[in-house]
Write a structure and sequence with these properties.
By secondary structure, the protein is α/β, with parallel strands linked by helices. It is 39% helix and 14% strand. The chain binds thiamine diphosphate.
């Protein structure tokens, strides 16, 4: 079948202007085709799946009603924006999505004028959209007293609405004159189930059956009596809200913040959505439209288990079977699972241990402990800063919190780490998952900056395990360490040891390991799992090169460094974090300050944002794969 036969309407839509030429009655078919297109593309070229399926109708309705790209749509996180990409000039390139050199994983203004801001980290849409809405009004137009007219729409999920930044945005929206529209895409899911009071509140709003029934009946009656009609649309909607407040016997939070609230509505009825958006689009003042959607809508396995289908990898689009490479081959575990299993093992023996995650229990495998000890694990919502400060409170009362945050999301918690944990030397263990290059999720998600950012903070210990055994040992060490915050960073994906369980024993804090001695002049100092790549490179090179696993970026092992400085005149430092300010820089500083002058080559992530691609491709590009390291070893050895 040709594309035209498979997708008769979609194949004719290059840009939203083409969509806007269709009669509204054809929109359900466009949605149907768009959904099928996403399912078939994602089956073969994996990415974020369930979220995009849930907003197919919303995406079509938004581009139909609003004059994009003149009007601005701001997607929160951007993991749900595949439909948006496909309708905005990128359908024929969609097979390159997330691949090296292909379409970017999240909306990005560098890629398309329809993408209004950098997306990837949650909860920023309201703030960005408010800034745009205000900026549009304020921007002087040359030679004219007129101001531009554009609509600004933020689309935020109920999960992202749990983030502090979203609340800060709402607070400001309510007091700064603007006409923006916030669309709350409420599917009751984050990646895992949405948690917290906001979720429950939203749930109450859309399950308020009394209100919904009465509203529909009353509206129908009033239409029949010609009291209300489409021309009096604003009044109809406001009447609904007044009725709602009356019936739910509580003031709507958003209304309380001076944001006109509409809904909740079925987010899968595209025709109705178009009608609603047209009604509220030009109303003055900030507005919120609350939609109820189903994550994974239209693909039964995803509707049933949206967590697994958030980003499912390859699958069979007909049967829904997920395809894993070599399922029977024994593989080393994922670092995240070693974290989850080890934490549970330790928690069984030590009642002080609690686990904290900002909305990633499955992603970081805290769910392993959560299953057995739900009362000792805390999913706090998309709230990294809060997760850290909450952990500080727990630690103050004698608990031993293990707070697990993806490295790049932990950027949100920088001050909390300094102010609430480090100054007081509280024993919070910060496990930073997804450290290093994460691959297809690209620059917003690479864990590049933690080492350089955390290193200057007093009282902080920073470690990175070379393998699974080391992760277990470091977790055990951290549990018994009273020096203040203890950071353990480890990467996405699998380690190297199939047989990963080892006795839990402590290692001395701030001590590295000599892995290999040499009689030649060169030594490699590595931090973390990239040490395994270095070990292979050294072996393959056939050169006589020493190798040390630093284990700790802070405190540095001064004894080890003294030994290295006295025995070797050429040093390569190796880390999978930003080179500027990282472990290599620490070694360079230490050598200079202690009167040693070896030749030092620092290998790490470059001073630019690394794009998306497979981890293998990206490590090659930044010169941290085995072959590139070998070249460096040879270069330095031949000096
Ligand atoms: C700051 C930050 N923390 C965590 C994440 C990981 N994350 C990506 S999507 C997501 C869930 C978002 O839920 P919601 O906004 O409801 O969107 P849905 O997927 O349900 O459509 C999370 C936690 C992130 N992108 N950014």
């Amino acid at each position: 079948m040709t594309e035209k036969e498979t997708y008769p309407l979609l194949s004719e839509i290059e840009f939203p202007a083409d969509l806007r030429r269709l009669p509204v009655e054809q929109l359900p078919q466009v949605c149907n085709e768009l959904r099928r297109f996403i399912i078939h593309e994602l089956a073969d070229n994996p990415g974020h799946f369930a979220s995009s399926l849930g907003v197919v109708e919303l995406t079509v309705a938004l581009h139909y009603v609003f004059d994009t790209p003149n009007d601005r749509i701001v997607w929160d996180v951007g993991h749900q924006a595949y439909g948006h990409k496909i309708l905005t000039g990128r359908r024929t390139l969609f097979h390159t999505n997330r691949k090296l050199g292909g379409l970017k994983p999240f909306p990005s203004p560098e890629e398309s004028e329809y993408d209004t801001c950098t997306c990837g980290h949650a909860s920023n849409s309201i703030s960005v959209a408010l800034g745009m809405a205000v900026g549009i009004k304020k921007k002087p137009l040359s030679g004219s007293p007129q101001r531009e007219e554009r609509h600004v729409v933020a689309v935020i999920g109920d999960g992202s609405m749990t983030g502090g930044l979203a609340f800060e945005g709402l607070n400001n929206v309510s007091s700064t004159p603007n006409d923006m529209l916030i669309i709350l895409n409420d599917n009751d899911m984050s990646i895992d189930r949405s948690v917290g009071g906001m979720g429950e509140y939203l749930h109450k709003l859309h399950t308020s059956g009394t209100y919904n029934n009465l509203r529909d009946k009353t509206a129908r009656l009033m239409y029949r009596w010609h009291v209300l009609n489409d021309d009096r649309k604003g009044r109809v909607l406001r009447f609904n809200n007044a009725l709602k407040s009356l019936l739910t016997n509580q003031r709507n939070i958003f209304e309380g913040l001076n944001i006109r609230y509409f809904g909740p509505e079925d987010g899968h009825n595209v025709v109705e959505l178009v009608r609603t958006l047209r009604r509220i689009k030009d109303m003055r003042g900030p507005k919120m439209l609350h939609l109820h959607t189903v994550k994974g809508k239209g693909f039964e396995p995803a509707e049933r288990n949206a967590t697994v289908w958030h980003a499912p990898g390859k699958f069979d689009p007909e049967t829904g079977e997920r395809l894993t490479p070599d399922p029977d081959k024994p593989q080393p575990p994922r670092f995240q699972d070693v974290f989850g299993e080890t934490l549970l093992e330790m928690a069984r023996k030590d009642e002080r241990i609690v686990g904290v995650t900002p909305a990633m229990p499955t992603g970081c495998s805290l769910c392993i402990m959560q299953k057995e000890m739900p009362e000792r694990t805390f999913d706090v919502g998309i709230a990294e800063g809060h997760a850290v400060t909450f952990s500080a409170g727990l630690a103050r009362e004698g608990m031993r919190p293990f707070c697990n945050i993806y490295s790049s999301f932990a950027q949100r918690a920088y001050d909390n780490i300094i102010h609430d944990v480090a100054i007081s030397r509280l024993p919070v263990v910060l496990c930073l998952d997804r450290a290093g290059l994460v691959g297809e999720d690209g620059p917003t998600h690479h864990g590049a900056f933690d080492l350089a950012a955390l290193r200057p903070i007093p009282n902080v210990t920073i470690a990175s395990p070379m393998d699974e055994h080391e992760l277990r040992r470091l977790m055990f060490t951290a549990l018994h360490c009273d020096r203040g915050p203890f950071v353990i960073r480890y990467p996405r994906g699998r380690g190297v040891l199939v047989d990963w369980r080892c006795p839990l024993e402590a290692v001395p804090v701030g001590k590295g390991r000599r892995l290999r001695e040499a009689s030649g002049p060169t030594a490699v100092l590595s931090l973390g799992p990239i040490g395994n790549v270095a070990a292979e490179a050294i072996r393959d090179s056939g050169l006589d090169i020493a190798h040390y696993d630093m284990r700790f970026a802070k405190p540095l092992d001064e004894e080890l460094l003294t030994e290295v400085a006295q025995r070797y005149s050429r040093i390569i430092t190796l880390e999978d974090g930003a080179k500027e300010g990282g472990m290599g820089t620490a070694v360079l500083e230490w050598m200079a300050e202690h009167g040693f002058r070896p030749d030092i080559v620092r290998l790490g992530l470059p001073d630019n944002f690394v794009e998306h691609g497979s981890p293998g491709e990206l490590y090659r590009i930044v010169g941290l794969d085995k072959d590139s390291i070998k070249v460096e070893l040879k270069k330095l050895s031949s000096l």
